[in-house]
């Protein structure tokens, strides 16, 4: 849960998640929405992967990223339990 929260703190990573909420995308397409270098984008994607917020599938040379909704469900359940107490 700590890695998840740390990943969500950054506005760039939150915007990546917003984009992936609409559709699965390769890194190159995600990068079109940012004015950061490809290594910086890769760094943000790696943090999201480590937090299990995104998954990816290799399609030829590309990695196609998508949201891992089960982690979002877990976070939501944890927050609901926290606020009920």
DSSP summary: helix tally: 5
Runs with pLDDT <50, length 5+? none
CATH top level assignment? Mainly Alpha
Main pleated-sheet profile: 3 strands, antiparallel
Query: How are the strands of the largest sheet arranged?
Result: 1-3-2
Report helical residue fraction.
55-70%
Name the average pLDDT: 91
CA gyration radius, whole angstroms: 14 Å
Q: From the 3D structure, determine the CATH topology.
A: Arc Repressor Mutant, subunit A
The string of secondary-structure elements, in order, is HHEHHEEH
CATH homologous superfamily identity: Winged helix-like DNA-binding domain superfamily/Winged helix DNA-binding domain
Q: Could you tell me the strand content as a percent range?
A: 15-25%
Word description of this protein:
With 85 residues, the chain is of the alpha+beta class. The chain has a single domain, classed as Orthogonal Bundle (Arc Repressor Mutant, subunit A). It contains five helices and three strands. Strands 1-3-2 form a three-stranded antiparallel β-sheet. Helix 1 runs antiparallel to helix 4. The longest helix has 16 residues, at 69-84. It is elongated, with a radius of gyration of 14 Å. The mean pLDDT is 91.
